[in-house]
Amino acid sequence: MRLIFIGPPGIGKGTYATAVSERYGIPHISTGDIFREEVKRGSELGRKVKKYLEAGELVPDEIVIEVVRERLKKEDCRKGFILDGYPRTLRQAEELDKMTSIDLVLNFHAPDEVIIERLGGRRICVKCGAIYHVKFMPPKKPGICDKCGGKIIQRKDDTPEVIKHRLEVYRRVFTPIINYYKEKGILLDVYAGEPANIVIPRILKLLEEHGFKPEK
Ligand code: AP5
Asked: Ligand 1, closest atom to CA 108?
């Protein structure tokens, strides 16, 4: 099962991809997570992408395409994968078609005010990347990750100015991508304006309806 999750920043792609990944036993590949991890490690790639991430700008195509090409070659992608945050440009989509074939693209949507509230309250674990929300998905112990005990922080690009800019970038770049997959007949619109305990079962049901049987 080869899936793409697209939608505006903060709609919940990472949250839903984590749930689908656990249920189907396929990797969740988030280009944003890969870049944040490289920035944290201070690698050459991390140094190259840091300024784009902090400004909420797109990382240049040549860099992103190469990262995804290498990631998809790994053994764990043989059964399938969920791409979260890729492709973001038509060139990235066309290059992806040369690497693999995609079964379904889930296009998440919700009103802007919902997205802004989610981004403003998002917290992540510095160690394992688990996603929390101060109001909607708080950790059991404040500031501590339930999964690994790591420290929970706010992402650097979740400040009001960068959130605004990321939403503008999204609106500018995503219409051609959505049309690209609509024309291929593999795009499904999914309403994500409700709590995660409603949205996640909705996604799992859709996948089953399309013939994908879960592992668990
Ligand atoms: P990336 O990491 O992909 O960020 P994004 O697309 O902006 O998406 P987010 O991670 O912000 O949100 P999400 O939809 O995953 O929401 P989440 O599940 O966390 O990209 C970051 C940067 O990397 C880009 O700006 C760019 O610089 C670069 N980059 C990455 N890929 C690139 C590419 N292909 N090309 C070029 N550059 C690239 O949920 C948000 C919050 O809401 C959480 O707190 C969560 O707990 C909560 N929540 C989720 N769902 C619900 C719900 N249903 N109800 C209530 N709360 C919910």
From this structure: 14
